[in-house]
Every structure is written in C-alpha cells, then in structure tokens.
Amino acid sequence: MNTHQVSSCFRNAHPAIEEFGDPKGSRAAQARQRFSGRWAAQLFLALLVIASFLIIPLTPQTAHAAQVTLAWDPNTESDLAGYEIHYGTAPGSYTSVVPLGKVTTYTTPDLTTGTYYFAAKAFNASNQKSEFSNEVSTTIAPVPTPGALSVTPTTNLSSSGTQGGTFSGSQVYTLQNTGGTSLNWTASKTQAWVSLSSTSGTLAAGASTTVTVSINANAGSLTAGTYSDTATFTNTTNGTGN
C-alpha cells in the first residue's frame, strides 16, 4: 500500500465573541447574541492517505481510491456543538459537507483519483457557524498497472532444404510492454540449429524491441526428417504475457 502524507496548517485565530444588550434578558437571546459575531476556528488539519485499493481496467493505469484522514486541535468555546468538514475537487468549491460532533478527526469515504480540497467550520448549539478555515488539499494519483509483455506476430517460422545443404529463413518478433511499469524479459530455445538475436532485456512502460529467430548452419548436419523447436518469450517480472 502506498502511503503518503500532506500536512497544512489553518491559521490560528481566537473566536470573535461580541456582547450585545438583551432587552428581554433571556438566556437564549444572550446565547444567540454572543454568537452573532464571526467565529474563526482554531484548527490544524493534517491529511493522511491511510488506506487504498485498486480497480484494474484494461488501460495503462489503474484507478486508485483512497481514504483521507483529517485531524485538528479542539476548539475551547463552552457552547461549541461540533464541526463541519467541507470538501470538493475545485478550490473553494465544496460539493460534500459532513456535519460532525465534538470530535477532532474525520476519515473520508474512498475517494477516486484526483485533487481534493478541504476546509472546516465550527458551529454552536444554535447552528451558528464560523467562517471557513483556510484550505488544505491532497492529490490521489493513478497507480500504473504492472508491465505486460506482448509478442507479435503469432506466425511460425518454417524452412526446408536438402540434407547437408543450406537452410535459410528467419522471423522477426516484436516484444512490447503494454503495461504501465517496466518489465524484464528473456527469450529461449532448445535446439542448436536455432539462433536468437537477443536473449534478455528490459522494457520500460510502452517500449518495444525486436528479436530475430533464424535457422543457422547447424541445420545442415541434420539427417532427413522433420524437426521442430519452440522459441519462448518470458516476462520474468510478473509473468503477464508469457
């Protein structure tokens, strides 16, 4: 599991509490008046990608989903009721709002690939809210798929001749890495009368190379008959596409 951490600090500022006269003197009215001023929540948010899973489509990269955990210092107001976490995929534009109680951490549901922006508000029992804190963000990047070996063409190589004579013929095979990470490969054969132009190598994501399979002079020493061999191309990194 890939785990990365992004930290950012919300500017600390004490809540602005304003006192107003209450003609009726009710406690509820006094409470509403005390919170009629703006709040500036004292919050420190740290973002941590704590869990991930993969969804693998037939593309060079997989979608990467991850949960993001936010943590902050608690506010000290006596009538604090809780917090709201706001987040979305554009700065200052929050499409998700999560009301919370008097807690100091929150973990999102699984978020797919992209950049996410977070901000918080505090609120009291009358649901009066502070201004937004300043914003933090994190990016969940796509995860490359493993390397995969593709070999073309799929045709065989055939050659014929007279005993003791010269045999000709060759086939060029193209090896390509169709995955998103590099792979190591090998090419092998079993018979002495078959030659390979290359027997191993490394392919970066999307890269290709060629291997020529040919009949060599040792075929001239064979007695009359039919002979066969197999050229094998192997992805030694993860086996995909052998």
Mean pLDDT: 75
- Assign the structural class, choosing from mainly alpha, mainly beta, alpha/beta, alpha+beta, or little secondary structure: mainly beta
- Sheet-strand content, in percent, reads 35-45%
Based on CA atoms alone, the radius of gyration comes out at: 33 Å
Helix run count: 1
Shape: rod-shaped
H/E element string? EHEEEEEEEEEEEEEEE
Oligomer: single chain
- Give a short account of the largest sheet: 5 strands, antiparallel
Distance between the termini: 27 Å
Helix content: under 10%
Low confidence ranges: 1-63
Give the total of beta strands.
16
Q: Would you kindly provide a brief summary of this structure?
A:
The protein is mainly beta. The protein has one helix at 27-34, and strands at residues 5-7, 46-55, 61-71, 80-88, 96-100, 105-107, 114-124, 136-140, 143-144, 149-152, 170-177, 183-188, 194-196, 200-203, 208-215, 232-235.
